[in-house]
Every structure is written in C-alpha cells, then in structure tokens.
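Reminder: ligand-aware prediction takes two inputs, not one.
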Amino acid sequence: MVKVNEHYLKLKAGYLFPEIGRRVKAYSESHPDIKVIRLGIGDVTRPLVPAVIEAFHQGVDDMANGETFHGYGPEQGYEWLAKVVIDKAYKPLGVELKASEVFISDGSKCDTSNILDIFGLDNRVAICDPVYPVYNDTNVMLGRTGEVDARGYYSGLVYLPCVAENNFTPAFPEEPVDLIYLCYPNNPTGTVASREQLQGWVDYALANDAVILFDAAYEAFITEPDIPHSIYEIPGARKCAIEFRSFSKTAGFTGVRCGLTVIPEELTAKTASGERIKLNALWNRRQTTKFNGVSFPVQKAAAAVYSDEGWAQVQGVIDYYMENARIIREGLGQAGITCFGGVSAPYIWLKTPQGMASWDFFDKLLNECHVVGTPGSGFGPSGEGYFRLSAFGGRENVQEAVKRICGKWGK
Ligand code: MLT
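Here is what comes back for the chain with D-malate:
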C-alpha cells in the first residue's frame, strides 16, 4: 500500500503566498470594479533591462544554429558565468573564490531547500522568527521536526526571535545548534546585519562546528556603506558558511530563474565516525545527480547583468525600487505608523496600527484600502503584530497605496 510522506501533514494548510493569492482572488472576483494594489509577495514588476534582453535573445539565436547550439550544460553552470560573478560581484568586496566553488542554479528558494539533502537529519537547526517560510517548512517536510504547537513553533527546531525589542537581532541559541539560517538583508523585516554581528555568528559557528546557511538574495539592495554584501567578507566564514545569491530580485529574474550557491573548498562537516567531508564535493554530487543545470539562454542573460552596460541599467531598476521603499517608509512614518527596514532592503516591516493582529490588518487593508501586503505572523509567531509591504511595485501604485493607508490609518 502506497504511503504519503506524513511529515507534509504537519504543515499548516498552505504556503503563505498562495494563501494570500487565494484571499485576494476571492476579493477581486467579488469586487471586479475595485483596483487592488499588490505589495504582498516580493515579486518584481519592472521588465528585464535592455542589455539582459539582448544577451537573452542572442542565447536563443545561438540555440537555432548548429554551430552554436548547446545541449546539456554543466550541472554546476557554465564556468564563464561563475567567473563573471566572481570578478564582478565578489572581487570588489575583497572576496576571492574559485569557479569550482560557485554552483549556478535556478534560484535560491530551491537551493536553500535542496541544501538540506547533504546534511544529516540529526543536525539541530536554528532559524530566525519571523523567517522566510521556506527554511521552516522544508525542515518539516524532511522530518526534522515534530508537530507544531499552539503558538506555531515546530518541536525540534530552534527559533531565534527577531522583534523591535531586540532590534531584530537574533541572540545566539541557548542550546548548541549545527545549522543556522541567516538572511541579510533580511526577509521579511528588511533589516541588515553589521560586520560585527556577522563576525559574531561566524565566531559562533566556528566555535560550535556549525554551518551558516547565508541567504544573500537581497544584497544588491544595500545602500549603507558599511554593511557586508557577502558572508565571506567576514574572516573565518570560508570555513563555516554557505552563501546563496539570486538574480531574481537583483535583476528581475523571478520569472526567468537563475541563482547561485557558493561552497568554499575548505568547508567540511563530520561523518558519524568523525571523518571530515568536503561539503563542496557533496553538493556537487547532489547537483550532478538531481539537477541538469540552467538553460543556456538564461545563463547568457545572467552574465549580461554584470556587463558594464547591464549593471548600470540594473542599478537603475534597483534605485527605482529603493525610491519606492523610501516613499513607503517615510510616508507611513510621517503618518505615525512605526516602520522598520526599507533602507537597505526592498521590504518595509511595520507595526500594525492599534496593535491589530497581522491577519486582521491584512483583511482590513484589503477590504478598506484595497492594498495587499503580507501578514507578519505568516513568517512566524514573532511576526504577529507586524506587517510587510514590498517595494517592488510600480511607482504610481506605491504612491497610491501609501495615500490610501495614511488616509485610513494615519494620525
Ligand atoms: C517573498 O515575498 O518573501 C519572496 O518573494 C518569496 C520568494 O522569493 O520566494
């Protein structure tokens, strides 16, 4: 008799963003004349920049010609793309990497989930609370946890609360952990980690023989000069951290799909018998078995992001989104709504007016202002009483949303 993976049944009914989509669809269907402004899921709205489109077209044309056609590519991605990323995105930070340490993929949502394949189930895992739900749910799916409790915590995971009272800075776990997810600039709170804070985590990981899973999907949105863009800017990180990056938010690739994972050669973890194994080799084994690489035209397009022309154009789009973030942050702030983040990240994390529960505020905002955001509690119990607005909308929509929210909730 065939059986299901019962760990899936421990999960709350639906993934956060489809649930929001369902509520918005129901509302829109019953109110067809109302224009709903969507600042919920962090999905980009600006088109791919011209340099990227040109390279993408060129990649497609290459596939139409027997001389330049490409079949299966390397599962790790083309070396020329890895080298471009190293030269343009890492070298300027003072970070040296080898092409064999960079694995091109179809995005960091997949990689931050799939990476769990190479770690034993008995590892203790720490995640921030609130958190990008993928880190939590994929651990549940694998069977690393027990059931969820009344507050929304799964037994077997170590949660690190990040709230206004601790400046959204997680404390080190009180019990030893083996894997630690960190996401900076942070989704959902839009806050950042300083060099000293990241050094603290690297020191913790080295002292505890732990590995940091560092999600840097939003590094391109950093505007503050002293904030690290990569965990490898921190001394010691090559021995204890895996970094994930994405072209999704940086260059508008949410519908195109390209990301990358960096695993330094010297990063190892132990077998039960105490032997140290290179995680780079294990991930390579995993990828060559389960993944066939990213399409050639997509990798051509991704490389163009880092051409001089491409980067200038991409930076223009990032500036556009960050101006949206400023409009939201300052507009709401002036109206007396407490906001966090949005300075070096495309997310604004606000305190719900009058201490409303996050989902109640979601419903009110949708029904009364026709604006969609993401309820903080959807990211974890410590997100209750908070709400996330995305800066990835079009300018007019963002301005209109701020006007509507301030008109309704401003002091
Ligand atoms: C978000 O809104 O948190 C992100 O868009 C989700 C994602 O990147 O998968």
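The pocket of D-malate is lined by residues 41-43, 109, 132, 187 (CB under 6 Å). The chain has twelve helices and 15 strands. We will return to this case in the review session.
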